[in-house]
């Protein structure tokens, strides 16, 4: 057993051993002149060297305990700390924390990654418009039973395409939201835009005398222009929503405070809505030209704005207000129709007075235009409050 | 006795942390009833299912931490004001804004926390409020307040959002419905399997119903938090670290007893504000049975073989071991080294490859004679094959077990080698000294020469090897078995319940207090509970804490067991 004396075993080591044993040549003396008393790294300030070695850890640390944890992960123990004249790692870490200057500017936080445009949703949003155009063409070309079949198939196809378009991409609802049933009300609103005006017109004049024939003439005419324009507007709506999200995320990174952010996002929101309205107006003009129907722009524009705002709120996690407003809008529209029919009952003639006045003054399209306009305005006010808050634009965490 | 076991991402999920320990504890204390309250960490964990539960587990309640819960009812005006007050107070404490109030820091944090919990219990809707814009605004106000810490003042909007999201996640246990009389209110003792968010339900149960809390931390949660926080802006890391350390302080302050897995964890707990009187060290228990045959037949070891067993990763410093082995070979040419272990990750695999190359360079293949096929004196192996079916066989193969780590927590491998009755040479890192006591040789880390010295000393002295091995086995059987672990917790349970019994008003079926339901004899007239004599910490008896032997090249190597 080598219990003999201090330098004994080390001295017996052959010189060739040094090349293998010494890990850092130059910092360590050879085995023969290494004495227990000689300082290994003869610096006057050993902590400074330590700080230099763990500079990144020290500069990154937000409190001394973080440095202590990092040092321990690098194998520094209380016994090592004793070499630096400290009682334990904690007090060593405190000294290091105090000595490192951290007055360099913190780097700007990385902007939360914005979603990138993708081919799948870009194509999906084009689908409803295309299918709707095809369905309208089919209605024009067919007759009788075939037309009925074409109408049913077209309605189904457009409904499925719309469902697909809002399932992914910038129009899809946020993960965290509690889904609320608004599909029924949206269907009602869209159907009304298709058939409602004709029905109201004929109801006021005592009709309708038969079921809709699927054309723009007859006793119950079909107005396909708003529906065509709205379905075509899916693509611009998706792109505008995408743009809104991306720009808002960027502002999140650059704004100093929540007030700043709100002030910067408000014009962005109004711009997005205005952009959508102009895109929808252009599409309306196009479809009016193509279909050759009489134009009713106010109705389609307000309905489009309402649906766009409701979707925008839903995608950012606010489902309650859109659901309430859509329900109310559909109910009021239905009530307007109902009053006209109810006025035919004996003694209830007064019920139809408001609606009849509207229809005779501004036409049948004024009723949905007024209702949807009011609803869209309400949603716009709500969105201006909710969508300008930073928490609406917080990146979602996907830790599952 | 009825014990509420609180876990987070652990028992009873198959893939949880510390499942084995909890399972052994629950099975070992069959005389008690266990209610398990588990927070799950991910969807995948929930899908993988539970481990089989013994009958003493009466009920299991789980809640997901990964899924945002329902927003709940929207708070009314008054509740909203209350939320803003409490959350603002919490945020102010985190930002370091010190009011001139006389309440100390921990009290402010605790008051804010319990205020939020009471709000959640009475009104609900806390989850929605924590995610709302009001929470972010409150946080911003606290960060911009005069006196806020520099890092907090620099928080920008994305930082505020990130902190709010983290706080929402961390405070999710506040919205749970576990604290009623049929939940945690019915247990006699809450035992949390780790600190941090896991201990929150225990804190609240203590606050609402006075159930005493026992905190067991094998790895200190705060330290893990520092080491695992992803890279984030300083403001986020500052606020989150502040939250974790305030929470740790609150948990330690309210707990009846805090147990640590080793002295290192205990030092961290003490540093974070745990009272010395509350701290107990309970060493992790290990199953001694697989190692029993090795320990009882010391003669099966090859006297010229060194063994290293563990998971291959850079922190184990195998390079240093190989350099030390070169030195050993120079003095004891017949020695062989068996490195048994598999890499844990790609980094470990690359390191293993590096070590193989180094071994091939340092040691040429050797053969017995000119006509025999040679092989390398250093072999890299893995357990599970026909040659080494288990870890016990790996330890059995060598006369000396070597540990060359530069970083180590609780060295499980070392304790296993002790159970096998093997003499050990280890580096002075982590809890090694505490585990080995005086029953093995300890050298400084990153010192191959000292490691070689110690190994040669043991290889040349079979008698000393046997003596150290026997002492090590005796020590390990005393300190690191499952039985001692369970026994220690049993003792702590009894101690806590005797000192802080939960007194409940017994109600009849109509909900009225039942007179004479608790007999007068239930209360001992003398105040024996108050006379608390300081008892020594479990596991840190005099001989267990004895200083180890240093076996550096220049210092005389001698063992305490002599």
From TrEMBL, chain A:
Transmembrane segments: 121-139, 183-204, 224-246, 267-288, 294-313, 320-342, 362-381
Keywords noted in UniProt: Membrane, Transmembrane, Transmembrane helix
Biased segments, Basic and acidic residues type: 20-36
Name of the protein in its database record: Integral membrane protein
Region of interest (Disordered), ranges: 1-46
Superkingdom field: Bacteria
TrEMBL record, chain B:
Gene Ontology molecular function, alphabetical: transferase activity
InterPro entries attached to this UniProt entry: DUF3492
All residue ranges annotated as the DUF3492 domain in the record: 1-276
Keyword line: Transferase
Polar residues: bias regions: 553-562
Region described as Disordered: spans on this chain: 365-387, 537-562
Pfam families: DUF3492, Glyco_trans_1_4
Keyword Repeat belongs to the record: no
Domain of life, source organism: Bacteria
PANTHER family (UniProt xref): BLL3647 PROTEIN, GLYCOSYLTRANSFERASE
Name this polypeptide is given: D-inositol 3-phosphate glycosyltransferase
Species assigned in the record: Streptomyces djakartensis
